[in-house]
Design a protein that fits this description.
The protein has helices at 13-35, 43-46, 50-62, 68-89, 93-114, 121-134, 139-167, 179-191, 194-219, 221-232, 243-267, 271-296, 300-314, 316-331, 344-368, 373-383. It is mainly alpha-helical. The protein has one domain (13-383). The longest helix has 29 residues, at 139-167. The chain starts with 12 loop residues before the first helix and ends in a 14-residue tail after the last helix. The chain crosses the membrane at residues 21-41, 53-77, 97-114, 144-165, 205-230, 242-260, 280-305, 317-336, 348-367. Residues 232-385 form the DUF418 domain. This is DUF418 domain-containing protein. Keywords: Membrane, Transmembrane, Transmembrane helix. InterPro entries: Bact_Transport_Assoc, DUF418.
Length: 397
């Protein structure tokens, strides 16, 4: 593979930094699904040892559902940057982005079927096609549309579940676990060959992953739209100017996010409280985390110390895909077979260890090349033989 040597270029370092921290949080949350049949269990009963209960509580409140929204918003930020760049250069935006999104969708589908069924790339690409039109909406409307598309279905669904629960608490079957699917998952992933895991993974993605991709219109698309609206307002570019407002929003979001995400531990673990925690508290806490990182990026010492994390963020596609490849090889039966054999704390430490290795790899790789290997393949598929010049740094994913 021939890749152009790296140059420093004109990137927004805070974007890469935030993307890197988001990838770490996503891996810690995803680790639950890598080493256990998390899709089919009631975690509050399945993780029954004191250590697992404490570890899960920390991840459930502070990590789960609070980092993928950051990644989605950054995806939207990058889409709008591409749109504005095309306008400035008087080039055609839709054909180029359609090819780019089509390739990303293909990568996501391969990832979902052949590596890990929890893929998000397919959903992002699918929502990206809708954004080809939505990115043209003025910034003053885009945020409101995103809020309406997200909040109205979410609040209606939570309200419906709450009403059903009040009418008959037993019909929602709080704490229900799918014993048959748990056994099938353990058989395929813990003890099965690659072929057996592949068959189960394909079925799992069609039943769970593909359905979630379609629901992305209400869950992922609004977050991408919010990111595009932030891009139109030049949030990262004007962060130093707006640091007072960012600090206020960040403080409010952190306090509110932690409180809402802790609510099931206060009021009880039932279905509607879990929905409130994940769908409302998750994105709010994500905004708080993003504000903190944006403010910290204004400090030179922070950028110096944590710059290697921004390198992993700069190679976000490579980082995300290799997380799945490494984790499935560690836990699945066709690899090291650790599925179901580690506790949550150990799994989280493994996640941090994988990320540290990825940071080191990104640092070494970018000493010589200007983009990650999967980013190169993505761009090669988009532009064909006509590769962009070294100084053309695109921040899309």
């Amino acid at each position: 593979m021939r890749v152009t040597p790296t140059t420093i270029g004109n990137r927004i370092d805070a974007l890469d930094m935030l993307r890197g921290f988001a990838l770490l949080g996503i891996l810690i949350a995803n680790m639950l699904t890598f080493h256990s049949p998390y899709f089919y269990i009631d975690p509050h009963s399945y993780f029954s040892t004191p250590g697992d209960m404490a570890s899960y509580k920390i991840i459930n409140i502070f990590v789960e559902a609070s980092f993928y929204p950051i990644f989605a918003m950054l995806f939207g930020y990058g889409l709008n940057m591409q749109y504005e760049k095309a306008i400035a250069n008087r080039t055609s935006y839709v054909p180029m982005m359609a090819r780019r999104l089509g390739i990303l969708m293909g990568i996501g589908l391969i990832h979902a079927l052949f590596v890990w069924s929890g893929d998000v790339l397919f959903s992002y690409a699918l929502m990206g096609f809708i954004m080809l039109a939505a990115v043209r909406i003025p910034k003053r409307w885009l945020m409101w549309i995103a809020a309406i598309v997200y909040l109205i279905p979410t609040l209606l669904f939570i309200g419906l579940i709450y009403a059903l629960y009040k009418l008959d608490p037993n019909q929602l079957m709080d704490g229900f676990v799918d014993i048959q699917q748990i056994e099938l998952a353990i058989t395929a992933y813990a003890h099965g060959s690659y072929g057996e895991a592949l068959v189960f993974r394909m079925t799992e993605w069609l039943l769970v992953g593909f359905a979630n991709s379609l629901l992305g219109v209400f869950m992922i698309l609004p977050l991408i739209m919010i990111g595009a609206a932030f891009s139109k307002r030049k949030l990262f570019e004007r962060a130093a100017e707006w640091k007072g407002r960012i600090a206020v929003v960040g403080l409010i979001a952190l306090v509110a996010g932690v409180f809402i995400k802790s609510w099931p531990y206060i009021d009880g673990h039932n279905y509607y409280n879990t929905l409130i925690q994940q769908l409302i508290g998750g994105p709010i806490l994500a905004i708080g985390y993003a504000c903190v990182i944006i403010l910290l990026c204004q400090l030179p010492i922070f950028m110096t110390i944590f710059r290697p994390i921004s390198k992993a963020g700069r190679m976000s596609l490579t980082t995300y895909l290799t997380q799945s490849i490494v984790a499935t090889l560690l836990f699945y039966g066709y690899g090291f077979g650790l599925y179901g054999k580690v506790d949550i704390e150990t799994g989280s430490l493994i996640a941090v260890g994988i990320f540290v290795i990825q940071v080191i790899f990104a640092e070494l790789w970018l000493l010589k090349f200007r983009m990650g290997p999967f980013e190169w393949l993505w761009r090669k598929g988009t532009y064909g033989k006509s590769m962009p010049k070294k100084e053309e740094k695109q921040q899309v994913l």
